Records
---
Amino acid sequence: MLDFLPVLSLFPLLLAAALVLWNRLRLHRVFKRFDSMLDNAIGGEFQEEVFDESRLSAVESKLSRYLAASTAAARSLQEERDQIKSLIADISHQTKTPIANVVLYAQLLDEQPLPPEARNYLAALESQTEKLQTLIEALIKTSRLESGILALSPRPAALFPILEGCAAQFAPRAAEKDIALSLIPADNDGAVFDPKWTAEAVCNLLDNAVKYTPSGGSITLQTISYELFCRINVTDTGPGIPEAEQSKIFQRFYRSSAVKDAEGVGIGLYLTRQIAEGQGGYIRVFSKPGSGAKFSLFLPKTQNLLPGPRQ
């Protein structure tokens, strides 16, 4: 009998060790299921199951319901994006043909003998059609960027070829207004950017500069290289922008009262800001009334400064 006492005294220890091992195995199974649930949720394949209501399983069940709701919300968001994508495509397609027809008929009318008064009406028709076409194109581009339908594809490249192309595009308009347009290159002007959309942003800035710079003025397009960013400056000798309005000009459809008579729809700078932020950059304006304006577009020089994917 006394020989069994040491064995009996070890029994509680063995039982405790067995309970600890069982709990660890149980926790391991639970965390393994948590891990699997999260992996499925990340992959968009999560499906809710039925669990018992013990304490750990209750937590597991709550996590399951949360992930199920998150997955449903993600699916709903994707469906909404698909609908927006379809709607934008429809608007783009449905408006393209009528506007093209208006332009065509206006050109045909221009070839006909018309009285002077009719010529004035025709000129107004052509001007308004061009403005409508520009507005629709800008809205479609902006909507695609905002909804994530049209993704920016930044890659390392030199900026000078992009700026050279933009300057060449606006040189005739600048010459018509007797504006001196100059391009100042810089060493090491490489950055990480989407060439097509960056050209769009720079052209928007040049469009404003040519539009608001008076005859005899000047516009300078310049790049400056820093450690983390490359800076594109578009400097003009226009009327300048009051400090109170500088935070508003990047809003959609904002038009300053000082330039309300000039052509424009107030979306170019908004689109430019969207393009800059979409590839890890930003835009700033430096201006005083009567002293012109300088718009600076900053683009990252390394991939690790790029923003993550849009949700």
---
Amino acid sequence: MPLYHSEDQAMLADSASGFMADEGNIAKQLRHYRDGGCPDGFGHKLWHQMAEMGFTGMLVDEADGGLGMGHVEAGIVLEEIGRNLTPSPFLTSSVLAATALKHGSNDLKGRYLPGLVSGESVFAVAVDETAKHRPSRITTRAEKSGNGFKLTGAKSFVVQGASADMLVVAARTSGADDDEDGITLFAVPKDAANMSHDAVRLVDSSVASHTKFDGVELDGGAVIGDVDGGREVLNAMLAAGRIGTAAEGVGVARGAMDMTIDYIKQRKQFGQVIGEFQALQHRASHLYSEVEIARAVTIKAQQLLDEGAESADLMTSVAKAKVAKAAGLAVKEGVQMHGGIGMTDEYDIGLYMKRDRALQEFLGDAYFHANRVADMSGY
């Protein structure tokens, strides 16, 4: 397939671009909720507006009230979210949790998906247990208890965990901590007894939590997929989240690049616009090439994931690693080309650097995914 959007996808991009620029811009959202000390880190009003636009249920099947779209379409929205640094639970709720719930029972879907589609509900995913992404090792335990399970353990940096109406939790129901099998995913409601949150504000001003489960009682209906067979569901959820993170990272890179290009076209030094300096032109041209390559590999991975291709998982890690490099370059070049003011909070370019740092770590950094590509390629 061509590495550009179809006519319908281009129309969606125009719609998402205009909406995020008008309603999701930095002044209205990120700075407003950051400076106001909002405990959620995002605006529920905007989340409802996104639902009215149909964004929240993009990956939800039509039979369950959603739009039944794919990762290419979700990526279009995520790119605009990244471009405007719009704080929202779209990635955790509409991509990660929605992908997991595809594997849930009809009862579970009926319990949670309507709230997602309407914008009334926010979901989070609790997988990682340390500062680094390591999904191969799950120590949180879910032991049989009557007709259900008792959940014990802790999860780290659960983005929007304290604000979520439901958490998708990966726990071990059998085997050793590093075993591939023996994983089960659970839908844990926010009011579950013996669950606690220690909220922390991340570098990009989003809010995560260190979540503890001290014998949380769950009934059998909370299981997503099969008991002990949750690794496949977990992998599908992570693949969706990783390519979604890459798409948002492309948006961050493009937003930082556009802001920087605009700035060097206006800033004068020694009576000359600095964008006319050949050294800066070379750097800007190199940056543009890197961002376009990252965007192309991201679209390719999205297409493969939508097709269910065997190579989708490999290409997803390629995209995550490449975008991390390109976005990292974009924000660094942006701050440097802005000069000293690029280090101040008055200018938005520094906010792009902060968001890039958070995205790079989420669901595996460039080194994690480069190593994963090497392993999957037989090295």
---
Amino acid sequence: MTLAQLKYVITIADTGSMNEAAHLLFLSQPSLSAAVRDLEEETGVTIFKRTNRGVIVTPEGKEFLGYARQVSEQYRLLEEKYIEKKNEKKKFSVSMQHYTFAVNAFVRLVRQFGMDEYEFAVHETRTYEVIEDVRDFKSEIGILYLNDFNRKVLTKLFQEYNLEFHELFSCGIFVYMWKGNPLASKDEITLEELAEYPCLAFDQGSSNSFYFAEEVLSTYEYKQLIRANDRATMLNLMVGLNGYTLCSGIICEDLNGSDYCAVPLKSDEEMTIGYLMHKGTTLSMLGRKYLEELKLSFEQ
């Protein structure tokens, strides 16, 4: 197994085409196919399934590529620092579930450092993709929550991907809704009172398991349930249908406006919000500063 072979399979996976990958790699298609075949025989892993419409990554190939990307990214960083000695912009990327407070911390980080010497990226996405982004070094940090229901399953996945979860804070459950909702003025809300209003949940795509839900109480039998893909749609549904979602109670009027509120849910459930990172690695200066901004959001 060589670094060149790892680069080959990563390029093929990214393009979805053996011919296009060969063109980008300045190789002949037969030479590239032979290199991939040798790698598959050596590892005993069938990385790609060949079809008339191109190549498809197999489930075991997807796992292999996750490790390949880690090795390739680490080698690239070593090469840039010690061989090419590039003076590139310092980079920071974070992936998160749909948390306004996490986006707000990112905004404050960018404002603090500017874009002249730094390159930033933020990915507000599905739970499994948050985990994959950190695993594949697409993001240095991943922001998500654990509770008694999903902790065992997600912790096992973290271990498989060589990731570790660090707790930031724990909190009760809140109902997030438009201030025009008839329940918005209450001091506390029960699930029974919410029955006549649609519960809004973020769609998790092909990983739409209860364990990957961004909302707690994911197994509860809601009378009305609407799934959406983004936060802006959620806010529109709160106004248009008096919908609600369950959250940590940390709201950010700077980004979402002042038309929404968080009311405590009458429940003993708790959620622990924290961050994911690779085991055995040290956070960058920007990573540490981002966590400082995140903690400041909690305090405020």
---
Amino acid sequence: MDKKISSKIPYILIVVLGIAIAGMLFYILPYRYRLSQTITFEESQEPLKNPLTGFAPPAENVEECEGNRLVYIGLTWADWEPRPGVYDIQGLEERFHLEKWKEENKHAVLRFLCDIPGDDTHMDIPEWLYAKTRDGAYYDTEYGQGYSPDYGNSYFLERHGEALKALADYCNEDYFVSYVELGSLGHWGEWHTNTEEGVPGLPGADVCWEYVLDYSDNFHNARLLMRRNYVMAAEGGLGVYNDMTGHKEDTEEWLGWLKEGGSFETRGEALELVPIENFWEKAPVGGEFTSEYTMEEMLDGRLSETLELLERSHMTFLGPKCPDRELLESSGAESVEERLGYRFYISELRTQYVFGANELKVHMKWNNTGLAPLYWDWPVTMYVYDKDGNLQYWEGLDISLSKLMPGGEIETDAKIPFTDLFRKGYQIGIGITDPQEKGSLKLAMESEEKEGVQIIYTYQNE
């Protein structure tokens, strides 16, 4: 019996020792080095000036555009095609400073225009096109003076398609033009004319469809928006824009169309307005501030009303009528800008060391406190640096930012191959870039920045 008992002692010791070692490896080691952590973050309240959202002042005004990430290009047909089939790309680039804005990683809102009311008699279509058609109407109304073409003219429509294709081919060369507002028809390209003062109305719905197809068939990199939620917008999944932003009654009417639909009279078949109340989850909302009030009024005495209308509209951008350079840093302008579009941050980061795989699991919770999602799925990358700040590892995260809705949350998981180098200290950073890796998106978080990467967590082995 004594021999039997003594023979088992080594095995018992081995088992106990194994359990102790396992306990140290699986429990003591991670906590000794604080490798398993849960860190929570508060949203930063600083203005972000992120791409694809915010104010979009006129691109031709360099001074006004300097503090913004979007610019507005209002291009008339007369300027784009001065002679039949001759498209003035050089004039477009020089007038709107496109090379400068592209170098600064800005993005553009584009509207093609055939009729801009002004102070003097003029036309915004090419002279050669007028000579071929001559069936529009000069007008002098409370809107101003100008020339309203006959949009139903078959030659006019044919040449419009060719002009739009040429413009789209130019824009499709890169991602600079990110939003295209379907203009072309009506005063300011807003799809209405002043029929009360004798200006001919728009052509019927069948003809209007042709204009929409000129846009949807040709612009491939930009999101398209219409002035109202016409049936074309509903069926095509387009966004909308409100050029009376800040005006309560007009915006209430516009929101009513989005919710309940309606009808818009033309010279032919009416344009039907189709309810698309939650369309903003997949398509953007833009527009510009109304001219009914001064900008100071909307950003001060009417600020609470302005913000309420923006929130109900789920707006992403405003321009070309938006706060000028003198008002851009006012508290009212900053309140508006920080609400426009998306606003992402990580509310929680959790690390867990897995000894068997010698890896660190990283779990993150992503939140959006803005008014809209990001309408592109820009790649998101996690970067890991050693304690000396040298990049040692990176991994693309499986997250679709276009699905991160206001008030929503998305969770991501990643793994870091762990080494003794990281045990001495490491940093986790997040980088979000456009598909061409030129512009970057910033999270609403207090963090240091390293070449476009935000360092959101630092581990130090003290």
